[in-house]
Amino acid sequence: MTPPPESTDDLPSDAASTEHGKAAATAPTTDDLTVDAAGTGPVADSPADARRRSRRGQSMTRVALRLVRNEPVAYAATWFGWVVFFSVPLATGLLVKVVLDRVADDTTTGVWALLAAIVGIEAVRWAWLVVIAVQWHGCWVGWQTVPRVNLLRSLAEEPGPAAGRLPGAPGEAVSRFRDDVEDVAMVLDVWLDLSGALVSSVVALVVLVSIDPAAALAVAVPVVLAMAGTSYLGPRLRVWRREAREATARVTGFIGDTFGAVLAVQSGGPGPAVP
Questions:
Q1: Dist CA 24 CA 60 (whole Å)
Q2: CB distance 2 to 139 below 8 Å
Q3: Cβ–Cβ contacts within 10 Å for residue 224, how many?
Q4: Distance (Å, rounded) from C-alpha 226 to C-alpha 234?
Q5: 200-224 average pLDDT score
Q6: How many angstroms from the chain centroid is the CA of residue 76?
Q7: Which string of b and e fits 233-263 if b means at least 16 CB within 10 Å?
Q8: Following DSSP, what letter does each residue of 109-152 receive, concatenated?
Q9: Cα–Cα distance for residue pair 191/213, rounded to 1 Å
Q10: Which residues, listed in sequence order, are joined to residue 42 by a DSSP beta bridge?
Q11: How many Cβ atoms sit within 10 Å of the Cβ of residue 165?
């Protein structure tokens, strides 16, 4: 397992700078980061703006790539582990095909050995899942630690007022440190799953084409249409996601201010409970 980094000294110099602290503080709220002219915070994106931004790369993606460059070996090991986990069922399916072919031909020679091999492969595969889960957990902690350390460094060490780098409400700031940073880590986690699914799907599609091209086409067309629909709806989904995160931050800030006000009143002059 790769332990989370204790500091961000090994990041690129701009990653630990004030501007990166501002980006880390504001970018995770959505998949589309737009900063106003003063550089003090995000402004709302229309679907057209989000679509234009998607053509030149998302700020969320750039932040995630910086995290990957911080620990490339750990991420590569985790990526390899997930690709292997997703791809092993292809070998299992091949052995099942051999077993069925022999049974259909009334040839039982080696069938029990093949069945035992299938069971052994699946047992090793799920044991492998435990290993890569431990590795993944170390990366998961590191992906969230680095942005939080950069946020704290920006607030505590960089010159100038910190008011523009985080929301004013303490509760909203907690949401920024907790939920928004987790969203950045979730991007890297999704990349692992998509990579494994993509590799295994491509190999499976090649095998299916060699068996029956018509069946392969019937399987591939709905998948392509679904991908096209998802790409078309992406800008609108990112706008909705941004609005949901901003609403969550406002609610969290209101709850934090409410509890703070109650504590201030109770500390100032506690009295009997109102019936």
A1: 9
A2: yes
A3: 9
A4: 12
A5: 89
A6: 15
A7: ebbeebbeebeebbeebeebbeebeeeeeee
A8: TTHHHHHHHHHHHHHHHHHHHHHHHHHHHHHHHHHHHHHHHHHH
A9: 29
A10: 35
A11: 23
In sequence order, the 6+-apart residues with CB closer than 8 A to the CB of 245 are 29, 30, 179, 180, 183
pLDDT digits (tens, 9 = 90+) for 111-140: 889 999 999 999 999 999 999 999 999 999
In angstroms, the first-to-last Cα distance of the chain is: 56
Letter string b/e over residues 64-99, b meaning 16 or more CB atoms within 10 A of that residue's CB = bebbbebbeebbebbbebbbbbbbbeeeeeeeeeeb
How far is C-alpha 242 from the geometric centre of its chain's CA atoms?
16
Q: For residue 109, count other CB atoms closer than 10 A to its CB.
A: 8
d(CA 206, CA 7): 45
5: which residues sit within 8 A by CB, 6+ positions away?
70, 71, 142, 145, 146
Dihedral over Cα of 259, 265, 267, 273: its sign = negative
pLDDT at 23 over 50: no
Q: CA 87: distance to chain centroid?
A: 21
